[in-house]
Amino acid sequence: MKCGMDPELAMFEQTVLDFASKELLDSRQENDRFPFGPLFTDVLAKARAVGFFSVTMPEELDGSEMGTTELCLLLESLSRVDASLAGVVFTDTLAKEIVYRARGFLRLKELTGKVSELGGSLFAFPSQSDPADCVGITAEPAAEGSYVLSGKADYVVLGGIADSAVLPVRTGDGFSFFTVDLAGAGIGIGEPVQSLGLHACPAVDITLDGASGLLVGDEGQGAEHLRRVEGRMNAACAAMSLGVMKGSFEEAVAYAKERQQGGREIVNWSEVRRMLARMAVKMKAADMIVAELCRSAEGNEPGWEMGSRVAALFAGEASVELTRDGIQVLGGNGYMEDYGQEKRFRDAGQIRSLMGLAPIRELKLMESYLAGEPLY
After folding, report:
1. Chain centre to alpha carbon of residue 143
2. Domain 123-219 is in which class?
3. How far apart are CA 64 and CA 74, in angstroms?
């Protein structure tokens, strides 16, 4: 998104890239071995210190109150080096956005005031699922705004390292969101669930046996609270996919310029150059889509939320295709950990599942269109 970028945005992007290069690049493969190696808690603490976990929050919550463009730049730039940290920021931001947009300012202020080894409170959320499908928890009223929760929440991202979780719970004919203290009574935290990609953005299954939960917003209005943040977070998904695409393309071009075959660099072989060109087309198309989406989101133009859903689906699919080609350009080395291409391929597939599985989101997109929501 550099073309015509505001100087302040360009400076912000460079700051994030510098952070990623310094803190993530050399330890990328080591970090990716979690849970069989240590989690990069020192990096998470540094990311919090520079404000990556509060870019969209207001100043009263120690945030920068930035918009969709800045959030996308942050996640794209991190994902160019290591998408796992971007996944952590995405999940924490999604959980906070839901509480905040549901008029939960005071709740957030109380929860974010906690201090942990990461320098503040981290929020868990089932960000790899559609909250409407999370029906494994029941809620019984206990006191005003407080409920007793029982059941199981599957694949809660950051559930093993966060202080609090925002969980969807079936209530009546709809669902509601609740905040839960993960150190509280009645909470059982499972072992990290092994995933395809984003290994350093871990998920766990959580069991609740009479645990205390505080209602977020109004009961049964979870779908509405989610709708208020979906546009921005779908844009963030597209930006993460774009960042992985840029990282893969840059790695492929650099390798092709150095690797020699038949007496010349392989970048000069027509089939390799055509493969790089196909990668460039997908990357540039996604780049233009994300840039236009951010512009329309900041202007709150009609239909931008539908556009964000389309962008997330397009960029997610394109990133899987592009990173597959990124492996092929490197030949056998593409499958080696040293170059990062195989990790990007795995991460691309995992990012594609943010906010729910892509096939289900495709069906819901057409459901919205057939119900009258315009695509163009």
Report:
1. 34
2. mainly beta
3. 13
